[in-house]
Amino acid sequence: MRTTKISFLILLAATILAGCARKPLLYEWGSYEEQIYAMYSDTGKVPVEKQLEDLERDYQEARAANKSVPPGYHAHIGYLYFQLGKIDQALQSFETEKALFPESTVYMDRLIARIKHK
Amino acid sequence: MFTTYRRISLLATFLLLTGCAAPQMDIDYTAFRQSKPRSILVLPPLNNSPDMRATYSFLSTVTKPLAEAGYYVFPVALVDQTFRENGLLNPGEMHQAPIAKLREIFGADSTLYITVTQYGSVYRVLSSEIRVTANAKLVDNRSGQLLWHGQATASDSEGNNRSGDPLSALITALVKQVVSNIGDQGHTIARKASRRLFRVGQNGLLYGPRSPLYEVN
Question: Is A34 near chain B, with CB under 8 Å?
Fold first, then answer.
């Protein structure tokens, strides 16, 4: 009887834990969200070079682990390159975003055209 | 033994029933299912709280839950910049932009309008709490139809043991006030509120096309 009770409790506990368990993520996020906030946060003003360095490092790590970076990641990197005046890298990042996520085509084409016009 | 067992069972059953439950308030998903948005344009949130940081703090927490639900999420910081270059300088102006224009410039299927209503410390006599509350509306960029709406709140005092010891409560409150003045504690709570607001499930979002669970059942 006692073992029945205990096994019932274990089963119940397992159900609770399993019910709320996380699914595997679709993307490797690295520090993307923190980097977005870092752009706007006054407390820890992070230089653009440092933001870029961190994002590029996270990207290389994701690639090495054969994982995808999230939507907007490459476009965001492109935006940082643009801020630093590195136009070729900016254009390339926007192209990569478009290739990985065709949903971004209209917007990326607009950005690319605008940069090339300048 | 029997009473202990009964107590644990009751508690566990209670947890089971409440742990993952969402508040009851049924949402009509007809328009959402018909619209089948692939992409979401997130506008910088309106901020009705006194803390200036709320807009961008909350904005930076939104991409992950939406993308993990299976949607393409436009790069939020770059989108903000594009608005500024087009003369829309704050969330209030951005939220007024015509959807036809948003579709033209970004090629976005849907737009997410967020309002942060609470962000930061709520002071009480013997406690202080950091709370973030936000609501959101997802709108179809072709028809202008409302596809989904929701609200969520999160607080740093969730799960705290309210033992009723006034001295320890006072100390906790003081410590929290000091700590919350140093960093942006609101940001951590904003992330929690955002995850809660943009969950998939009852009254939450539907899975998007990039999720393996898209249109399952």
Answer: yes
**CA dihedral over A105, A107, A110, A115, signed as positive or negative:** negative
Tell me how crowded residue B214 is: count the other CB atoms within 10 A of its CB.
15
DSSP secondary structure letter of residue B205: B
Average pLDDT of the residues in B138-151: 97
Q: Where are the alpha helices (DSSP H) in chain B?
A: 2-19, 30-35, 54-59, 63-68, 76-85, 91-94, 99-106, 166-182, 185-197
Work out the angle between the directed axes of helices A32-40 and A48-64 (0-180°, nearest 10): 170
ipTM value for the complex: 0.82
A11 shares contact with chain B (CB less than 8 Å): no
Of B9, B59, B74, the CB nearest to A72: B74
d(CA B155, CA B151): 14
pTM (2 decimals)? Answer: 0.81
Mutate to test the interface with A, among B11, B53, B68 (most CBs of A within 10 A): B68
In this complex, do B67 and A106 lie within 8 Å of one another by their Cβ atoms? no
Give the nearest partner residue to A70 out of B16, B67, B104, using CB atoms. Answer: B67
Q: What is the mean pLDDT of residues B76-103?
A: 96
pLDDT in tens, B164-201: 566 666 666 555 555 544 457 889 999 999 999 999 99
Q: What digits encode the pLDDT tens for the residues A16-28?
A: 555 555 678 999 9
